[in-house]
Amino acid sequence: MAVRASSPIVLDGRLDEPAWRQAPVATSFTQNNPDEGAPATEQTDVRIVYDSRALYIGVFAHDRGRSVVVTNNLQKDFDPSSTDLFEVLLDTFDNHRDGYLFAINPGGAKWDAQMTDDGRYVNSNWDGIWSVKTRVTARGWYAEIRIPFRTLRFPPAAAQRWGINFLRRIRRRDEDTYWSPVPRIYDITRASLEGTLTGLRRVQPGNDIRVKPYVLTSRTDTAPSRVAGVFHGGFDASAGLASGLTGEFTVNTDFSQVEADQQQINLTRFSLLYPEKREFFLDNAGLFEFGPAWGLGGAAEAPADSVLFFSRRIGLSGNNNATPVPILAGGRLTGHVGPWAIGALNIEQEQQGASPATNFTAVRVQHDVLANSDVGMIFLNTAGGGRFDTVAGADANFLFHQNLNVSAYLVRSFASQAADPGAGNDWFGQVGYYYPTATFDSTTSFTTIGSRFDDALGFLPLVGVNKVQGRTGWHFHPVRTYGWLREIFPHTHYTFITRPGLGFYSRYVDYHLPFTFQNSTNLEVGINTSRERLTRPFLINSRRGIGVPAGMYDTRDPFVKITTNPGAAISVNGEYLAGPFYGGREHSYTAGGVVRASARFNTGLQWTHDVISLPAGSFTTDLVTTTVDYNFSTRAFLNALVQYNTDAEQWSANIRFDIIYRPLSDLFLVYNDQRDAITGDLIGRQFAAKLTYLMAF
After folding, report:
1. Does residue 449 belong to any structural domain of this protein?
2. Exposed e or buried b for every residue in 39-55, given b needs 16+ CB within 10 A?
3. How confident is the model at residue 316, as a pLDDT?
4. Phi/psi zone of residue 15: left (φ > 0), alpha (ψ -120 to 50 degrees), beta?
């Protein structure tokens, strides 16, 4: 229960105002991991007070081991898995589906996210306006959190009733505890298991109007000796249009401060999937998700799943090594109105070179049904250069008995010119289920994609196929070895693909046996097997001109990999895989590590080395990725990403300095450099300075 503060709350991490003594204490946390259902090994006390402008959460995390409280990072949006932390879920519409997540560590670093559909979609790139102060003592650590009501969306009721839950993580024990108990197979995003917050009266979300202008200056050098300078500006704006809807508008959108993609070596015939990192497309991104949210994971040799709406198609020239295309303007409408979830987007992309001016539209609508299920529709359209590409369809997601998830969708494409003229259809459908329990884990889906299905706003590595894929596994928690061995999870992934008129196309089956130890070290052994029918040759190494001819190919790759405790000052990882590969042999080595010297300084190194021997020729690839993070404070960060790729014969560096001089207002200094790995000659270099200023009303 929340209590209205009778005097101002000073954010200093001391909890010494009278209101804190008047507020009820939420305690008696229960373990989710490692000993599900057992009391927490350390007590956590949480109090909630509020005034007319903000919600305050006071935390005292008792800890008898103060000297080993783990604080590995001060950076904004730190890695929550590698540090002690406290996290809160706020379900402000009390619909047991959606909410906001706010997490802190003992050093005062912040992490926040939006989540939808009972944790099916979590957008950790969302940023809200809130603040925190922490203090570490001999008896534990304190935190005072202030969340302005204007940061949240909630209904206009005189008396509010919200869903709420708290998570306390003790990193040295790899222990997670919850105020409202959550089974081991779930986490805090399982809003259907939340508790209730009452006591909030006569509070308003505010006007929720934000205007964020920016100015940018940059200099770009490209070989041979071409220099270009730029000075321009633009802005983003947003406003709360109803109790749960937010309208956003952007002009001259700029993403120069976005961190660079981490490169990948592609040894398959399928496209690689790179994640979206641009702020405008990330806010409420879960509302545009379509179909089931569960993934298979681990099926490394199978093509990535199709994504119906992939926002990297907007404002970027491609997926791999994408280059920016100017965005003139755009708008979005996202949020919830009663049982409805709405996401609508329209973006106008400028002409660049041979690429015509293009308009992108995406509309996604969902309606809650039954206790925790939904049905929805999607509409996507791309229009430019006298052509259009439209996709429309519907989906349904049902949850039965808290564990059985059943999902189905069916969409169709309509294009002015078919991407694959000739026979086939333009339908895309899937039906599947996911059933996780404490001891058993199973998921299976059937997918059919017509050869004429065309989605210019999607990621489709493979069309014109029928596919069955899934995973089955068992969770064992051995009693006799529980002092050091936490879980054994034998499981198998499988993917079977056929082509109409051709029959068998590919098969992938693996058998994995991972061991998770009490300090969260993970050791995994297994074997990946596959059979592929190549109906046409493909170039596996374009730089050396080495191809793989059409034919039938079998692989059988045993592997071993290990990842040590991610909360330790030094953690390492490694993997070795070998076996037949497209008529030849493959040896793949991965090694890396992270040094967390302090909360201020973290650095990591990752090296992947592939040795490929094929009938058409042999080659090796190396990809070295180095990261360096120095945190001057919780509001000033220096990050460097340096990559060496022998496949592309390039060195690249991305160095970013970010000063948060006021909430969600930043000064970015960004330096990018690309060089030929053989000669050292400059390929491209850019320096950019960008200033943003958030005005919130």
Report:
1. no
2. ebbbbbbbbbbbbeebb
3. 81
4. left
- The confidence score (pLDDT) of residue 490 equals 97
pLDDT at residue 421, rounded to an integer: 61
Inside any domain, residue 149: yes
Contacts for 559-564: CB closer than 8 Å, 24+ residues apart: 559/525, 559/526, 559/527, 559/528, 560/523, 560/524, 560/525, 561/523, 561/524, 561/590, 562/521, 562/522, 562/523, 562/524, 563/521, 563/522, 564/521
Query: 97 is in which domain, residue-wise?
Result: 3-201
pLDDT in the model for residue 241: 76
Helix or strand holding residue 279 (H, E): helix 279-282
Question: What confidence score (pLDDT) does residue 298 get?
Answer: 47
**680 contacts: CB under 8 Å, gap ≥ 6:** none
Q: Say if 287 falls within a structural domain.
A: no
Question: Hey, what are 82's tokens?
Answer: 């590698």
In this structure, what token pair is assigned to residue 514? 């991972």
Residue 582 lies in a domain: yes
End-to-end CA distance of the chain: 28
Q: Are 15 and 144 in contact (CB under 8 A)?
A: yes
pTM assigned to the model = 0.87
pLDDT in tens, 518-561: 988 999 999 999 999 999 999 999 888 999 999 999 999 999 99
**Strand bridging mode 3-4 / 44-50:** parallel
Of all residues in the chain, the percent with pLDDT exceeding 70 is 95
Domain boundary among 180, 201, 222: 201
Tell me what pLDDT residue 335 has. 81
Can you tell me the distance from the alpha carbon of 158 to that of 198, in angstroms, rounded to the nearest whole number?
12
Residue 664 backbone zone (phi > 0: left; psi -120 to 50: alpha; other: beta)? left
We report the CATH number of the domain holding residue 112 as: 2.60.40.1190
Q: Which parts of the chain sit beneath pLDDT 50? A: 298-300
Looking at the structure of the chain, the number of domains it has is 2
Instruction: Give the per-residue pLDDT at 553.
Output: 96
